[in-house]
Amino acid sequence: MFKSQLKAISSRIQRQFDDIFSELDVVSVTQAMAYATNGGKRLRGFLVVEGARLHGINIETAIWPATAVECIHAYSLIHDDLPSMDNDDMRRGQPTIHVKWDEATAILAGDALQALAFDLVSRHEVGSGEIRANLVSSLAKASGADGMVLGQALDISAETSQKKLTFEDITLLQQKKTGALIQWAATAGARLAGSDPTALTKFSNALGLAFQIADDILDVEGDIDLVGKAVGKDGEAGKATFVSLLGLKEAKRRAKELVNEACEALKEYGEKGENLRQAAHFVIQRES
Amino acid sequence: MFKSQLKAISSRIQRQFDDIFSELDVVSVTQAMAYATNGGKRLRGFLVVEGARLHGINIETAIWPATAVECIHAYSLIHDDLPSMDNDDMRRGQPTIHVKWDEATAILAGDALQALAFDLVSRHEVGSGEIRANLVSSLAKASGADGMVLGQALDISAETSQKKLTFEDITLLQQKKTGALIQWAATAGARLAGSDPTALTKFSNALGLAFQIADDILDVEGDIDLVGKAVGKDGEAGKATFVSLLGLKEAKRRAKELVNEACEALKEYGEKGENLRQAAHFVIQRES
């Protein structure tokens, strides 16, 4: 049920991207934007659509913020893969943008994807002006210097710092780097409906952390062919991760505990929350 | 009158930035954001505030979109200066971000400034939800793959292309690269008031083109100490510019003609448009 729903939502997002990119001039930057948004799990977009469904908002409305959050996610990956950042040649089993095109195209495609995200959440189809402005404001905060970008900055400074990160440091870093956007995605549906996002906030905080612990586990245990990008990089770089700090066994236990917490937070939605509960379990069982 | 007003608005924008950055964690990325937004002419912010005044909107409201447009402008300069883009070491007489810090910090500071721009225009102080969403939507379009980023992409592809650009090519390129954001700035006041932006659109289209012709003239005639960045680069690179296509004399004549067009467009505002008229004259007389 979850897997077929994830697939259906992912296809719907792809159709949305196809429409959007067909309206733009064909230059290397727009080609790179289409390439970078094509593929991936689209878990963030799924969270938007499912969170919206729990609040009675249909996919034709939710598709806009769902596509927007995938734009932000894609832009962050493009910039993160650049030589001066993580310097990754492969992503989702394909050459990264700066390898397939060049660095300038990668920088500009990322920049344009960020702008596109704000274009999409502010479209008339999304709802009242108040709701659109609220989605923009929260997305900007989740993406910016107190959200995702801060997380990336902390991550980079950790790499060059002498001081090893503590568990608390890594938790904060990850809450910013991946957690803030996951939280925005999971709560966007409540914002669309003008409803209270508390339950979905709790759900997504636990989910975001479980997601990152699972990522660290994949970096140790993952199969490069399935993960689609380099693995074992963190260990080689001597980087503190949840696995290096907790040990593999404890990291797995903690991830499972967080998934249970996430599911617990959905109690008030009853049966309707089943897809999101399955998504939480998927997050720590995935192979990529 | 114009010069003292430009200075007053610039100081007000600086105070706004000081407040905003004092609320962010002090990491190299936020320091770089403050550094990159400190200085410059702030002509775009001035256009927002003056355009707003023409529509009865005071500076305490207009300061938010004025600061936002300066964020977008600053981010575009940071990314444009990167080694894989224009590779400039100096900007406003100071080392560029990737020189003073490093490339990763420059990429992230630019990314966070873009997010901050959308945070600022969507704040409650700006107006109704409808007005805020309208400002976001138009700013996203002016900045993105059909606006500023498209202009930069066309500029980069022109540098590697065999084919020399025509006058029409350069006009389109510049309308996107600098014109779209200048137009947004000049029309934001009308949007804030929910009024018709037609006159300010005409004004800013002429102004934007005059601005770029003046930039090309400065690249040929400018004093490096006043311009604050490398000059003569375009000529050395064999790049087609308004000056190389029109000749210096005709470029100056055309710039003056455009300034007259810009002033003409302000007729309906009478005396109240005087600051903007002086701004248009300043654009082609400036030394930096």
In short:
The structure is a homodimer of 288-residue chains. With 288 residues, chain A is mainly α.
Describe the structure.
The structure is a homodimer of 288-residue chains. In chain A, a hairpin with a 2-residue loop joins strand 1 (90-91) and strand 2 (94-95). Helices cover 73% and strands 1% of the residues of chain A. Chain A is globular and about 50 Å long. The first copy, chain A, is built from 15 helices and 2 strands. The longest helix of chain A is centred in the middle third of the chain and has 27 residues, at 167-193. Chain A has helices at residues 2-22, 28-37, 43-54, 59-80, 97-100, 103-121, 129-143, 148-160, 167-193, 198-221, 224-227, 233-236, 242-246, 248-265, 274-285, and strands at residues 90-91, 94-95. With 288 residues, chain A is mostly helical. The two termini of chain A are 20 Å apart. In chain A, strands 1-2 form a two-stranded antiparallel ribbon. In chain A, helix 3 (43-54) packs across helix 9. The model of chain A has no long low-confidence stretch (mean pLDDT 94).
